[in-house]
Each structure stands twice: as C-alpha cells, then as structure tokens.
Request: fold
Amino acid sequence: MSTEAVMWVAVIVGVMVVVPTVGFLLLRRRRGRLRERFGPAYERTVAAAGERRAAERELRARRTRSGPLDIQPLDPEARRGYVGRWAAVQERFVNEPSPAVSEADLLVRAVMAQRGYATEDFAQQVSDLSLRHSRILEHYRQAHEISGRAMNGWVSIKELRQAMTHYHALFDDLIGGDQRPSGPGLPLDHP
Reply:
C-alpha cells in the first residue's frame, strides 16, 4: 500500500473517531443545559415521555414557546397587596384549613395571571412555570395534588399544612424570586 493510501486511511479513521466523539460531547453539553434549565422537571419529563430524546425535544420546544410569554415583574404596591392577602390566607388556615388551601391556590394563580403566566390549564401552568421557576415547581405539583384530593374528599391536617407550605414556596418565588438582582450569593432560578 502506498504512503498516500495509508495517509487517506488514517484520515478516514481519524474522522470516524473524531466526528462521533464531537457529536457525543455536543449532545452531552446540550443535555446538561436542559437539565440545568429545567431542574427536576427534566427528569420528570424524561420519565413521562419514556424516551430521553422525545423528552428533550419537548423541553426544547417548551423553551422555544417561551418567546411569546410576556412575564412582568410585580410592582411594589401589587407585591404588598399579595403579601397581605397571603397573610390573611394563613390566618384563615388556623380555623378553616381546607378552604384556606383552596384560597392559597387561587392566590397563586392570581399572581401568575398578573405576571403573565397561563392560568386556565394546570399542564400549561406547569410548562410555563418550568421555564423560570423549575427549582420550585415540584412544590406546586404537590400542593395541587393535595388540594385536588381535599376537594374530592378528606385529607389530614398534616397534608393540608404541607399543601400550604408548598403553595407558599411558589408564592414567594412568584412575588420576588426571579425579580431580585443577581450577583454573588444571589442565585436566580433561570439563566
């Protein structure tokens, strides 16, 4: 075999090794960015889809759909009003836990609506919230699940208290979690 043929074989073998390696590294990097962006929602979406590629397509599509969302920060007066309403809901919880949990859900959705999130469909709410509040989204899922069971039957005071805690975590994040200035020691939930 001539030296020219050996050189071409070496180039072809090199390309056959380098191209898949670069492709794998790019895929891993893209997957890492999705995991970072969506947090626990990444694994939940993968589990629901049953296939990692399909789940990642859905998450990328979700990120692309986020363009038309016009999420606005709350003005200080609105924020104070919502904080006051939250305090009233917490006070009501002492004597009427189940209705207070329902009110907490309504209040969270009111804040979402004012900020510009969808509020009609739970699946759409979760999808939209996953773009900016992915780290806290599991709280909303659990609160929603407990609240739904409370509407359809009896749940314990402990579960209702958990629902309030979960709603409060999302409420806090919605009224200020992604509006704080960033800097060292002040992580934001979205890139």
Q: What stands out?
A: The chain has two domains: 3-65, 76-177. Residues 9 and 154 are 73 Å apart (CA to CA). The radius of gyration is 23 Å.
